[in-house]
Description:
Elements: H1 8-20, H2 28-40, H3 48-56, H4 68-80, H5 85-94
Amino acid sequence: MKKKEPSLEQIERCFAQIDAIEPEEPTPEDLAAFAAAEAEDPAGMPTLEEFNTQINGHSGKLSLRIPKELHRQLAQDAKANGVSLNQYALYKLAR
C-alpha cells in the first residue's frame, strides 16, 4: 500500500505547532562544546553537503526560474493532487 503524503493543511498545522514552541537556550556546556567544535574545524574543510556533492557529482538540487503563472498553476495542481510542489514538479519532469 502506497503511503499518502500529508496535505498542505496538515503540513501547515505541523509548522504552526513547531513555531509555537519556545526555543531552548543553550547551556554553558552546550556553548563550550560548540566553541570546541569550531576550534577543531579547519576553515577549508567542506561541509557534509559539499563533500557529498564532490563524491556523487550532483547534489540533487535544481533551481529554476519560471513564469509566475506557471508557478501558480503547478502549485494549484500539486495541491489538487495532495502532494508537495516539489513532488509534483519531480513527477512532471520525470514523465
